[in-house]
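Please check the following for our workbook:

***
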Amino acid sequence: MAVKKSPHSKHLALFIPSLAGGGVARFTLNLAKSFASRGHKIDLLLCRVAGPYLDQIPAGVTIVKLKASSGWRGRLSVLTADYKALWPLLLPILLPYTVPKPVKFLPDLVRYLQSEKPDVLFSAKTPCNLVALWAKRLAGGPTRIVVNERSSLSPIVQSKKEWRWRFVPPVIGRVYPWADGIVSVSKGVGDDVSLLTGIPRDRITTIYNPIMNLEIHNKSLSPVKHPWFAANDLPVILGVGRLVPQKDFPCLLRAFRHVRSTRRARLVILGEGRLRRELEALTKTLGISQDVSMPGFTKNPYAFMARASVLALSSAWEGFGNVIGEALACGCPVVSTDCPSGPAELLQYGAFGTLVPVGNDKALADAILAVLDKPPDRARLRARASEFNIDSTSEKYLQFTDISLRQNPVRKKDDGGSKDCKHLAIFLPSMAGGGVARAMLYLSEAFAKSNHRVDLVLC
């Protein structure tokens, strides 16, 4: 692809954990490719240089592997960035035995910002968003930070087994207002973030994910090496996504059992994840294993979508629902749970696909059967997907490179920016070797670096 030379070329950085198979990696690569095609200098910052999309790095994009530090050094950096947030940070960040992984990369991200000084750093996913904003606070400099919230937070907070997620929303509410731009991938996600964190809704901009219509069309023409699609004798229902609780594939399997009790059909689920064994066991329990195939992750699900009778999304929650847009681009009919948030917006509240209640396998089965009996116009579905094009999305993100130069982000009162010197005392029995003494030393060092007078009081 020819690169468009721009007299206003920017240095843009994109920060995500890795290129693991999923919507975030695909979205980031698509955005990086579009930015690079406009003549901008692009750095892709990764905590781990790993994932199935490593061979799809666009031309003109430089991979920057951030170096991990110790968990304690990462915690110290967080506290140094916002010492006034000691109490909100204790439970989700400072006290847990294992530190959130992106926090370990905070010191090196600070180094990157100080040395490279990109015009804008775009980050995606909550942990990376927080780390990006703490890094900017520590690094200083002109770099603008634009954070991208990819999923509704409420279901995540309620469903996470890690108890510390219950204490993350106050941290988000404190730190996100430092950003030059806060982006949600759907209006529902924006509403949820605002409700959960107290961030004013008008501070959050909704920018839908792009759908790479031409690229998807070209890949959809590739042959599918699966006997059920070659035979073309029975309808094939398709599920696509990571095998994780969020996607609620047990609901889809139960729905497929209902479908099978009415007519013959087959189900293919593309994706990989930690619930594989449980899902395979469930297919046997339900008596449907002979008509269910789980071939794993594929880089080209579009060839399957173009040939499937219907795509069924059974998620308990989403942010946008990339697979819905991709299925529409292939002309594949869609049935989806009306989960928060994204699917209803993509399907225009039922105009381009059927929506059913979350967790209702009977309703999902009925909707699948209705599509099999009366398929919609595939050309109409493709036309809907064309409304979410990469050029429009890229332009909306690039507006932040100029808008944030003219606007000061709204900050909450007492956001930790005050540099008033305090006299602080830390009291503990002794400096005996152990976690308490080590934690207090890190704490006193953080306070001292913030120009406070610190007394360490020992028995």
Notes: The two ends are 69 Å apart (CA to CA).
